[in-house]
UniProtKB/TrEMBL annotation:
Native organism: Hymenobacter swuensis DY53
GO MF terms, alphabetically ordered: structural constituent of ribosome
GO process terms (BP): translation
Family: Belongs to the bacterial ribosomal protein bL17 family.
Oligomeric form and interacting partners: Part of the 50S ribosomal subunit. Contacts protein L32.
DNA-binding among keywords: no
Keywords of this entry: Ribonucleoprotein, Ribosomal protein
UniProt name for this protein: Large ribosomal subunit protein bL17
Gene: rplQ
Comp. bias regions, Low complexity: 167-176
HAMAP family linked to this entry: Ribosomal_bL17 (MF_01368)
Ranges annotated as biased composition (Basic and acidic residues): 182-195
CC per GO annotation: cytosolic large ribosomal subunit
Length: 195
């Protein structure tokens, strides 16, 4: 049983697992997308995301920490050069796992693609196109709303004197209405006041 065991050991010793994850992280950083099994991809995500976060601050200390894990100078240049510039504004979630329908022929393992989110050009173009369409609609709506808002403000400004005049007329006419009001006995107020 695996009660409380959160790390997937992947059927390897600690040194073998760390070397494999280091090599996979280097490949992911250099190629931006790799195909592997789902189990390895989930383990790699936990392994590589802290390294990507460390690359955001380009200091000697962070470079040494990352190099102690990756042990590859070309990968380090790529990570602190192009990758860190693209992920600078992203607050985490740098990788995406896309499961494939095909399984591996030898052992029927589930396969997937793990990629860096900011380097998938097709999805970025689709998102930019959707945002461009959405902003166009919103800007038109705001222009119409402001135009309607101005016209409605003008109408309200014009209606205020008319409403005041109407209110004054109802105040004047109110006593007249009460004067002709009939009481229970059928007498009017004027007749009652004369008595």
């Amino acid at each position: 049983m695996r009660h409380g065991k959160t790390i997937n050991h992947l059927g390897r010793t600690a040194s073998h697992r760390n070397a494999m994850l280091s090599n996979m992280a280097s490949s992911l950083i250099q190629h931006k997308r790799i195909t592997t099994t789902v189990a390895k991809a989930k383990a790699l995500r936990k392994f590589v995301e802290p390294l990507l976060t460390k690359s955001k601050s380009d200091t000697t200390h962070s470079r040494r920490l990352v190099f102690s894990v990756l042990n590859n100078k070309e990968t380090l240049k790529e990570l602190f050069g192009t990758v860190s510039a693209k992920i600078a504004t992203r607050p985490g979630g740098y990788t995406r796992i896309i499961k494939l329908s095909a399984t591996r022929l030898g052992d029927n393992a589930e396969m997937c693609i793990i990629e860096l989110v900011d380097f998938n050009e097709t999805l970025l173009e689709a998102n930019n196109a959707a945002e461009a369409k959405a902003t166009t609609r919103r800007s038109r709506g705001k222009k119409k709303a402001t135009a309607e808002g101005e016209s409605s403000a003008e109408v309200v400004a014009e209606d205020k004197p008319a409403k005041k005049a109407k209110a004054a007329a109802t105040e004047v006419s109110a006593p007249e209405d009460t004067a002709t009001e009939t009481l229970k006995d059928g007498e009017t107020r004027e007749e009652k006041a004369a008595e």
